[in-house]
Amino acid sequence: MGRLKHLLAVYGILSLLLAGMVLHAILSTHAAKSVLEERERLVSMLGLTDLCLTTEARYTRHPSQADYFTPFQDNPMSLELFPSGGAMAPPSFKEIPRKMVVKDE
Amino acid sequence: MSKERHKHILSFSITSLLRRKGKNLSIFLIYTLMVFLLGSVVFFVSAIKREAATTLKGAPDIVVQQIRAGRHDLIPTEYMEKVRTIRGVTKVIPRVWGYYFDGPTQSNYTIIGMDGESYEAFRDRIPFLSPEEAPIGNGKVLIGKGIARSRGLKRGGHFYLLRSDGGLKTFEVSGIFSGRSSLLTHDLIVMSEKDVRELFLIPARYSIDLAVYVRNKEEIETIARKIGEVLPGTRAVIKEQITKSYETVFGWRSGLVFTALLGTVLAFAILSWDKATGLSADERKEIGILKALGWRIEDILEMKFWEGLTISLTAFLAGIILAYIHIFFFGSYLVAPAIKGWSVLYPPFNLNPYMDAGEVFMVFFITVVPYTVATLIPVWRSSTIDPDEVIRGI
Fold this sequence. Notes:
The complex is a heterodimer. By secondary structure, chain A is mainly alpha-helical. In chain A, about 50% of the residues lie in helices and about 0% in strands. Chain A folds into two domains: about 1-35; about 50-90, no CATH class. Chain B contains 15 helices and 13 strands. Chain B has a six-stranded mixed sheet with strand order 5-6-10-7-9-8. In chain B, strands 1, 2, 4, 12 and 13 form a five-stranded antiparallel sheet that branches. A two-stranded antiparallel ribbon of chain B has the order 3-11. Chain B is elongated, with a radius of gyration of 31 Å. Chains A and B meet through helix 1, helix 2, helix 3 and helix 4 of A and helix 1, helix 2, strand 1, strand 6 and helix 4 of B.
């Protein structure tokens, strides 16, 4: 039974750490509230559209502003080559119409 | 009585695990590493998604871009008037901004221009700057911490950038955005619209794109559609797309998540397959002896269940705690390089801690459940083992 107690002690410590983790996440969220508000204000002020996660390519620096063709626009048949482009998926292109309407001139 | 029986079986399971210490410890370490990697990616991605969702709420409602031959092009500023006449549009601001590749530091900067009117609206309290740091215009600029560090600049310092015609333009640093805003400002140089036009030689009647603000947020999509009708050849990016971009960009199809997920699933498939396809001679012998001693098959199944659960649950808890520490205390040291790529300037990934219970449960489900189930299958199949044959080694 001694070994069972040891196992339970290990689980006790891990559970405490897990609880600490959850508590840390909750407290940090509250603490960061003012910083997040300031960031939102800065976004409004500068009219920013994206987070600065990577600066290597235009389409990964501002993924929301890029279109389908941007990663391949350097020359015909060019391949997307930046590492950060491989880590991210293309954004959704909701604005591209699925239906084509031909106007009668 | 029944409770005591379970306790004894659990105690026996631990003894059994410790008997094969080396093998079980290596499984535990690999298991923890897999959970750690998957958990790190999950925490990293959900924290970035949340940062994007909370901070980009202030982004323009619609951004109108001119597309020519499949590329972004300068948009005539006169288009502003056409957009302004659409019912529901409150404000149209021509944005003048761009990218600048800095040869000496081999890094890319993002240069943002602000017109006097927009700037004055925020003049008294510019976020992440003290009031005396605020002035821009006539060569005075605000810069992000990354640029200050890479160029060795301080407040009041001077630096030059190459104009598009090859001439030099000198700037003075009037303020440096604090590090708490790095996720937005690390590579930014904020200057007056006039300075940006002079730097990039953008004619006064053109802008890079138009930021459109709408009174009723429910009408954004309708207005974007109308803009497309009024200005053919343009593309309207709506705010919902901007804020949700990061959901898609870091969705499960993104390289980062997909690789971590695929790696983990394959590793578990191999581990579980190995467990599920057969028992070692020692394990068969152990089951045979236990049966000979009068253990029922359900007791043996329970013992194996505890064995599997002990390893997988301990590894899951250890892995997920280490992943949290890695992402939120050590700046995502192992995951961030995949996003940084070849960037010279990249922000320190001091992400605000965030845990999505659903995603943690997903990690639990794809790591703990398959292994625990896989440990039971061979034992179930071995219920027909004849103790006599196993003990004799036939």
